[in-house]
């Protein structure tokens, strides 16, 4: 497929592939296979690898290849859409990952902007166009999280993406009403992916296409049902969003704010609370992991406060 030909739209509820990590820090590939099959069975709109939650920043190139081959093989066999994250702070490693990802024919490839010295807009355009060459016709999704070295405003993103036609979507954090107004003004035509626990708002604001989602970490099946409900009953979906945010603020964010755990640690504890697959809470060294006992403690609370996510 050529990048200038239309691509099938990407949106909805995307589950993050989380890495099961053994006590010796190795990736448990047998569990990873089981996890992928469980996500496919849950009927999510798609699965994506190597986001922050997938610890892309902490794996070897051999591990990268093995993870992506496993994801592509199992998704192809079940016709499940998949996106591969080729993100890496170093551009040359990233271009190589993009090339190898493209050979596996994903729906899209996610990249970040090189992340040591912040890029100017002109440099970002050059980088993304070269990544597009490496992607050989597979569209790109730019991942610009709040912790990136440079966080671009909707206006800046609009200017960069206008000059990078292969970038079809952006995964980013949303903001207040003004942010949504700017997103509508400058980012129309791009598929925007907002944080999972804000997806109903993003849809109501007419801005979000979907989410690479922390709610899917908690319950892939529940997040799918919730996402579908945004088309049929947005008021009910917004009510559940309010309860999800209350749960995250009270029980999940304190792990980061009070104890300094990483976002990936939070996503993994969510999956352990949901208890839907063989992921566990462990992260690779040097990152600290949340005690699995915390997941056991929070499990009944999640089910009481968010029963709709655990049908
Ligand atoms: C709150 C939330 O949904 N977090 C999700 C984020 C955001 O979608 C992204 O940072 C844009 O804000 O993406 C991930 O980190 C990722 O890349 O692995 C998964 C994580 O569950």
TrEMBL record:
Family annotation (InterPro entries): Aldolase_TIM, DapA-like
Domain of life: Bacteria
Keywords associated with the record: Lyase
SMART domains (UniProt xref): DHDPS
UniProt-listed SUPFAM superfamilies: Aldolase (SSF51569)
Pfam families hit by this protein: DHDPS
GO molecular function terms noted in the UniProt entry: 4-hydroxy-tetrahydrodipicolinate synthase activity
Entry annotation: catalytic residues: 143 (proton donor/acceptor), 171 (schiff-base intermediate with substrate)
Alphabetical list of Gene3D superfamilies matching this protein: Aldolase class I
Family: Belongs to the DapA family.
Record's protein name: Dihydrodipicolinate synthase/N-acetylneuraminate lyase
